Amino acid sequence: MTVITDSVAQKLEERGLWRRAATRWAEVLLHAETDREREEAARRRAICISKTRRMPEQLVTFGDVKKAADRTLKEMGINPQDEWRNYSFSDAGDDLALP
């Protein structure tokens, strides 16, 4: 019984780089000589793929965008309060004033 090994793929697995390890096992699979080696490489690849997980998508709200803009303005040395519009009656003028 032959056990297929690949030091690069195993190091990637140890580091938790599952997608890269799965890709490496696919390369090993292409160069395997026996059916047993191909089965083992395919099994290891499937294990790596099953361990991958995507980061959940985060909902971005207007508040998040405003915080990021405020943070950027602050880093630039600009007062964020001066840059956001302040709709007050005095700014609108007499003909555009709201009741």
List keywords for this structure.
99 residues, rod-shaped, mainly alpha
Describe this structure in words.
This is PerC family transcriptional regulator. It comes from Escherichia coli. InterPro entries: Tscrpt_act_PerC/SfV_Orf40. The chain is mainly alpha-helical and 99 residues long. It folds into 2 domains: 7-51, no CATH class; 57-84. It is 62% helix and 0% strand. The protein contains 6 helices and no strands. The protein has helices spanning 7-14, 18-31, 35-51, 62-75, 80-83, 89-92. The N and C termini lie far apart (88 Å).
Present the secondary structure layout.
Blueprint: H1 7-14, H2 18-31, H3 35-51, H4 62-75, H5 80-83, H6 89-92
Concise overview:
This is PerC family transcriptional regulator. It contains six helices and no strands. The chain has 99 residues and is mainly α.
Spans of at least 5 consecutive residues whose pLDDT stays below 50 are: none
Which whole number gives the mean pLDDT?
83
Instruction: Say how many strands there are.
Output: 0
Reading the helices and strands in chain order gives: HHHHHH
* Rg result: 29 Å
Number of domains: 2
Sheet with the most strands? none
The computed structural class is mainly alpha
| DSSP summary: helix tally | 6
Portion in strands: under 5%
Helix content: 55-70%
The backbone outline, from C-alpha atoms, is: rod-shaped
Instruction: Calculate the terminal CA-CA distance, rounded to whole Å.
Output: 88 Å
Organism: Escherichia coli
Protein name: PerC family transcriptional regulator
Pfam families: PerC (PF06069)
InterPro entries: Tscrpt_act_PerC/SfV_Orf40 (IPR024684)
